[in-house]
Amino acid sequence: MKEDLEILFNKKKKQRGSLISVILPLYNEEESISFVINELFDYLPKFLPNYKFEITFIDDCSTDNSYALVVEASKKVPNNIKLSVAQLSRNSGSHVAISAGLNISRGDFTIIMASDGQDPAVVISQLIREWENDNELVLASREDNLDHGFISKVMSNAAWKIMNWSTKIKMPEKGCDLLGMDRIVLDSFNQMDERNTTFIFRILSLGFKQKEIDYVKRARVGGKSKWTFFKKLSIMLDAITGFSNRPLKMITNLGLSVFIILVFRWLYVVFTIYVLHQIPTELSIILNTIFTALALLVLILGVIGDYIWRILDETRKRPVYEIRKVDGDIFNLKA
Predict the structure, then answer these.
(1) Would you say 146 and 217 are in contact if contact means Cβ atoms under 8 Å apart?
(2) Does residue 102 sit in helix, strand or coil?
(3) Beta partners for 102?
(4) Sheet holding 210-217, edge to edge
(5) Residue 23 pLDDT greater than 90, yes or no
(6) Which of 23, 42, 54, 114 is a plausible cystine mate for 101, CB 3.0–4.6 Å?
(7) Are 108 and 248 in contact, with CB atoms under 8 Å apart?
(8) Which tops the pLDDT comparison, 127 or 306?
């Protein structure tokens, strides 16, 4: 439901708040979680004392001590920080965890960052500075990723370019995992009830005044990346099929091209029989042509079937996630 004009004007008159929410998806990061929390506790009170920070970890059903470590750290925090953790009822992936964090965020400005120690706390100052300059969505583009080798960087850049090309949504060329958004962007995002789509493309599809900054993504503090090749491939397919009809157009053009080729092929067969009076001896070629057409048909049906599945999944409205429990503390905004 869209807001009326009076509500929009009241929002415009509202002064910029000072509550910053920091959302960190968490899954089996016990080797790095203490480093991340300590860095935030050291940096935020010293360099951003005028803001209040609600740091919320969204535990994607970790099997190690990650949850317990956050709960323990929440017992002793700096004055301008509150630390909490929410655990999902099942492992659903980092993008679902991030969406859950955005849904429960209370901040005037919300930041998404990694819990593996790769995102330096100093970037938070840059994000807030751009927000203070009236930018509503601030994207931190990866100038470099020290945790990736040459092949990983090439494949990652290629994946982002493919998603950029197919979706027609402007995205930093080398990808974006760290970002900050104004409350107006967050409220718009939370009105989107979608499944099988990546959170970053949902956010970018909203528009708003955007600003891009660069930063170097550090090497992991400990542990191994949970982003397997197949998880990355799944995210890429979700982005393409969730925000683009180009695959359908490409398949339509491919099917049309194959049909035209087959028409000319059969015209040649007719010409050979009735004009040249030759008996065709290319049965194997004809069979190969038929089998090729069948293979293309199966491919086409598979892609169309994927779109149909997404329609079915959207109409069922099953919950994407459930929050099992929460611990820690938050600010009392009513006081």
Answers:
(1) yes
(2) helix
(3) none
(4) 210-217, 137-145, 176-182, 109-112, 19-26, 52-59, 81-88, 323-328
(5) yes
(6) 23
(7) no
(8) 127
Q: What is the DSSP code (8-state) at residue 39?
A: H
Residues in contact with 31: Cβ distance below 8 Å, sequence separation at least 6, in sequence order: 221, 222, 223
State whether residue 85 is helix, strand or coil: strand
The residues near 10 (Cβ < 8 Å, ≥ 6 apart) are none
> What's the CA angle centered on 35, arms 32 and 38, to 5 degrees?
150
Angle between helical axes of 150-167 and 229-243 (0-180°, round to 10): 10
What angle do the packed helices 33-47 and 122-132 form, to 10 degrees?
Answer: 50
- In terms of Cα–Cα distance, which of 183, 203, 135 is closest to 11? 183
DSSP letter (8 states) at residue 16: P
Residue 49 CA to residue 66 CA, distance in Å, equals: 27
Looking at beta carbons, which pairs linking 184-188 to residues 24 or more positions away fall under 8 Å?
184/11, 184/136, 184/208, 185/136, 185/137, 186/102, 186/105, 186/107, 186/110
The CA-atom distances, in angstroms, between 322 and each of 66, 91, 199, 252 are: 19, 10, 17, 39
**pTM for the full predicted model:** 0.69
Q: How many CA atoms lie within 13 A of 10 on its CB side?
A: 5
Going from the C-alpha of 134 to that of each of 101, 252, 269, the distances in angstroms are 23, 44, 68
Kindly list the distances between the CA atom of residue 46 and the CA atoms of 53, 74, 87, 215, 229, in Å, as whole numbers in the listed order.
13, 18, 30, 21, 39
Could you report the per-residue pLDDT of 277-313, keeping only the tens digit for each?
766 666 656 766 776 677 677 667 767 776 776 676 6
Six token digits for residue 279: 């008996």
CA separation for the pair 241, 306 (Å, rounded): 8
Contacts of residue 200, Cβ cutoff 8 Å, sequence gap at least 6: 171, 176, 179
Q: Which residues have a Cβ under 8 Å from the Cβ of 209 and sit 6 or more positions away?
A: 134, 135, 136, 137
> Mind listing the pLDDT tens digit for each residue in 235-244?
666 666 666 6
Counting every residue written for the chain, the total comes to 335
Helix, strand, coil shares, percent, the chain, to 5: 50, 15, 35
Using the structure block, give the residue that is written with the tokens 């990808």.
175
